[in-house]
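Issue: copy button drops trailing tokens. Both records pasted manually instead:
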Amino acid sequence: MSAEVSTDEEVPAESDPVDGGPGETVREGEVVLDVSPEALELVLEIRSAEPDPEALALRVAITGISGSEFAYDLGFEELDGLEGEHVRATFGDLVVAVPVDSVDRLRGAVLDLPRDPGQGGMVIRNPNRPDPMGSLPPGVAETLTGEVSERVEQLLREHINPSLAAHGGYALLVDVSDDGVVRVTMGGGCQGCSVSAITLSEGIKRMILEAIPEVVDVVDATDHAAGDSPYYT
């Protein structure tokens, strides 16, 4: 089974590992991904069409990043056939298995139905978001020299723009105000991009504030309505 899942905005109990199926290590009882009663009813209804439904678990994994959200894979798999280390939790007659490499990024999420009754499938309301640019290497602040504006430009050139270049974008310093507000413009793939606000707030701004203590805020001075394919129109 492969379910259509979208994302939407919106306690773990640790236990010792136990043996699961062939090649699998299981942590039982830790609720990583909760399941709403409505979603549980739908999943069980879909599973009931399978030849041996009671033998199947719902496996939920993060497979990558789509825009500003995680991408997910949901499917029924035989409990005895799961491979690798999983965290399993039981909801009524349903076992939900989450691979350990998805646990931290799914913790606190809920599998639910869309709020719009006309929308099909299910949604995962995940409080976690992908880190758009990663983290600065330790000691970066000590390598920056000069006035605040010079340090911002150095940080953009050496650490921020190489990450943005992977998506065809870049950021340039406009100015630094006397009270420590940095203005930047975003170009290339970042201009008019639908996730540029997240890139700025969770990537560029976070890195500048972390590395340069004199900076109190970072604002976007980009005209996102300009360019060949502007997002904000």
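Record 2 (pasted manually too):
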Amino acid sequence: MKIFSIRGYKKSGKTTVATTLIRKLKEEGFRVGSIKSIHIEGWHIDTEGTNSYAHKEAGAEPVAAWGLEETAIIFPRRLRPMALLKYFNNDWLVVEGSLYLPVPEIVCAKSVEEARELRTGLTFMFSGVISNEMDELDGLPVVNPLSQPDKVLEIVMEKVFPALPFFDCGDCGTDCTGMAELILKGEKTIKDCVMMQKDNVQIFVGGKRVPLNPFVQNIIGSVLKGAVYSLKGVEKGKEIRIKILDPELL
């Protein structure tokens, strides 16, 4: 899965960029998921007075609101990024806001000063309000999503690479943030990630091995370790093997 984020202050044009890219990627035939990161104190998905709110207040976790046209699963807490990502199995994941993971990012800004303030080593393009005034800033393209939607898509397709394992093993001589920055600079490729070349998690169904990319391996491995290590008498750091023999359990 390829993941990128769109960062910027309020009213800088993040949603316009996000929705433009979601539409363009869908037009290309990709499966696209999205995350909207919300930083508002006291904001809740559910509202007081609804039945699902009452279930949550009673202590249920998670709570599923199963409607005729939509389904929502509500956790009464903020999930960690990796826990959230396990619910996505898309070709692309568009994050409006920060996911606090080393993924390529587009910075939306209202001014040059704002753009420079928000830029990091993971920034590969500027957009938003500032794109009405210029088409380049400090060596990076500044692209208007409304007048140049195809160019925005072209740059995203060129620069965004498959998600790193987010494991920070250090085997590459740097962490995942450093590796992501080097890939964006063109000094490394995704193949230089040592963890991406390992098969730490293997799944066989009916004797046939199911191919897993390193990102999915990391998610499955993290979930399994968390569940197994919570059991009494389990020694950490040992190989874990799990067999499910009864298909009815699946």
